[in-house]
Amino acid sequence: MPMDDDTPRTTTANDGGTGAVGAAAQLLVGRTGDRRGVGDVLIDEDELAAADAFDLPGADLSSEEISVQILAAQADEFTCASCFLVRHRSQIAVDRGGRLYCVDCEG
Predict the structure, then answer these.
(1) Residue 1 falls within a domain, yes or no?
(2) What is the pLDDT of residue 13?
(3) pTM greater than 0.85
(4) Please, where are the H alpha helices in 32-71?
(5) Structural domain that includes position 102
(6) Number of domains in the chain
(7) 46 and 79: one domain?
(8) 8 Å CB contact between 67 and 80
(9) Which phi-psi region, left, alpha or beta, contains residue 3 (left: φ > 0; alpha: ψ -120 to 50)?
(10) Contact indicator for 91, 102 with CB cutoff of 8 Å
(11) How many other CB atoms are found less than 10 A from the CB of residue 102?
């Protein structure tokens, strides 16, 4: 009998109410001591601990202090008048009235 993939699975009386997925999950939980089951989903404790160590983009870093050493532009560097990046003098493409442009911004 064809079954629609979107319909929820139901348990039958002969499988003990656990279902095939639940029985497989119980077997896996029995074999591995570092996993715990939540419903039919297994959670690996090692992966959970590793995930807590990662900082997500956009996280609140207001309590963090960042120290950066700022150097003045060196003699062999220039600041592009278009993108305002500090580049090596070998990347000067155009000098328009004392305003230097890099090879990426020429045009």
Answers:
(1) no
(2) 52
(3) no
(4) 45-52
(5) 69-107
(6) 2
(7) no
(8) no
(9) beta
(10) yes
(11) 20
Residue indicated by tokens 């993108």: 83
Over its C-alpha atoms, the chain yields an Rg (Å, rounded) of 30
| Residue 63 placed within a domain | no
pLDDT, the chain, mean: 75
105 and 80 within one domain: yes
Identify the helix (H) or strand (E) that includes residue 96: strand 92-96
Is residue 105, in this structure, part of any structural domain at all? yes
CA distances (Å), origin 77, targets 9, 28, 91: 67, 61, 9
Q: Looking up tokens 């020429």, which residue turns up?
A: 106
Residue 16 in tokens: 């003990």
End-to-end CA distance of the chain: 67
Residue 30 pLDDT exceeds 90: no
- Give CA–CA dist 40/44, Å, rounded: 13
